[in-house]
Amino acid sequence: MAVIVGVVVVTSGDDDKGDTAASKPPSAPGGAAKPKAPSVGKSFTKVPKGCELIKASTIEKIAPGGNKCTPGLMDKKDLPTMITRMPRWEPNDYGGPYQSLTVSLTVSAGVKGQYDLKKKTALSDLSGLRKVEGSKPVSGLGEEAVVVSTIDAQGGSLAVSEVVVREGNAALAVDFTYSRESSDTTRKQAEDAAVAAARDVLASMS
Questions:
Q1: Phi and psi at residue 176, to the nearest 5°
Q2: 205 neighbors 46 (Cβ within 8 angstroms)
Q3: Best CA proximity match to 6, nearest among 73, 125, 91
Q4: Beta strands in 59-127 (DSSP E)
């Protein structure tokens, strides 16, 4: 079996403390306080090549030996309105347990729709090909993120932990796949691996 490694985890201030009438902003007409401007996510314009999205040290930690990277077809063909990266990493030695890490990254103005699509796909049973074992939000990662764990429907020998993230004008999905028969990887470890990789992806862009 081919091994593919491709490849994505809030503080409250104490601002009200010691406030006085003089320190508060003037009220808007009608006595209502002027609302704060909504927070705006990052707007990425520079995205590394696909194989540079995740640090080599991260790959070696979460998928030892997985230092053979294959870029996606669109990794070097940026469009005026969209940047796409779909690299995968696979180990040079296929003698070890099956595992894979993949990334699907989209940077564009209409990224909310891309995030919703990636999330919907992650939560899908793919017409009965797999079973969703659990999903949960991931705090502190992007503006919104969720991790979904699935197993294949044909005996459950393969398991996947996928993190889907939206940050500003970027949406990404990171899959960590492993064999439950030949690997001692746990679901928690797989989830942590996908989250660590997703953090690297976001940190690599500017």
A1: -115, 115
A2: yes
A3: 91
A4: 68-70, 82-85, 88-90, 99-108
CATH number of the domain enclosing 137: 3.40.1000
**Is residue 93 in some structural domain?**
yes
Structurally, how many domains does the chain consist of? 1
Which three-class secondary structure state does DSSP give residue 24?
A: coil
Per-residue pLDDT of the chain (206 residues; tens, 9 = 90+): 333 333 333 333 444 444 433 444 444 444 444 433 334 578 999 999 999 999 999 998 888 777 789 999 888 889 999 999 999 988 776 667 778 899 999 999 989 999 999 999 999 999 999 999 999 999 999 999 999 999 999 888 999 999 999 999 999 999 999 989 888 899 999 999 999 999 999 999 99
Range(s) of the domain holding residue 75: 44-204
User: b vs e for 15-33, b when ≥16 Cβ sit within 10 Å of the residue's Cβ?
Assistant: eeeeeeeeeeeeeeeeeee
Report the first-to-last Cα separation within the chain, whole angstroms: 37
Q: For residue 79, give every residue at least 6 positions away whose Cβ sits within 8 Å of its Cβ, in sequence order, or none.
A: none
Q: Give the span between the Cα atoms of 197 and 116, in whole angstroms.
A: 20
How many DSSP H helices and E strands does the chain contain? 3, 9
Count of Cβ atoms closer than 10 Å to residue 115 Cβ:
24
C-alpha to C-alpha distance for 110 and 117, rounded to whole angstroms: 12
Residue among 107, 104, 108, 138 nearest 121 (CA)? 104
- Cα–Cα distance for residue pair 72/179, rounded to 1 Å: 24
